[in-house]
Design goal:
Largest sheet: 11 strands, antiparallel
Number of domains: 1
Structural class: alpha+beta
Number of strands: 11
Strand content: over 45%
Shape: globular
Distance between the termini: 16 Å
Helix content: 10-25%
Length: 141
């Protein structure tokens, strides 16, 4: 499965809580159609998730069209913003690896390991051609 994860993925569904505080998957079209759903989730659905050959999961978001180019340049120069390409910003990059047949990613959170601080690796579930990563169900594009 190593090679099959390389490439771009889109968020197909978000894991949310229902009225009974149970976790459920809500598909992207339903979230976008819900006028009462929070805007931050709707923005996240614009994101591309890129699995790279060099072992990173990159969260990519379109640069908002209403931001003037000089503001983008200033944000890049200050280190506040990282561009992936001209129209896409890199929000975050997480290392991933395979360990004993499981696909894992580095959450970025430290834990108490036997040899001091170690990063916490969590499994990415692979099921029915999709990936379950954090609160996202991803579909390859």
């Amino acid at each position: 499965m190593t090679d099959s994860i390389i490439g771009r993925w889109k968020i197909q569904a978000l894991r949310l809580f229902n009225d009974r505080y149970e976790q459920i998957w809500v598909e992207a079209p339903a979230i976008l159609a819900d006028k009462d759903h929070i805007d931050s989730d709707k923005k996240m659905l614009q994101m591309d998730i890129l699995f790279t050959e060099d072992g990173f999961i990159k969260m990519l978001m379109p640069v908002p069209e209403d931001i003037p180019p000089e503001e983008i340049t200033a944000a890049v120069q200050s280190g506040e913003l990282t561009l992936y390409d001209e129209k896409t910003m890199l929000l975050h990059a997480f290392p991933y690896r395979y360990d004993n047949g499981k696909l894992l990613y580095d959450t970025g959170f430290g834990g108490s390991g036997a040899q001091g601080q170690e990063n916490f690796w969590e499994e990415i579930i692979q099921e029915n051609g999709m990936l379950q990563w954090m609160r996202y169900r991803l579909q390859k594009v």
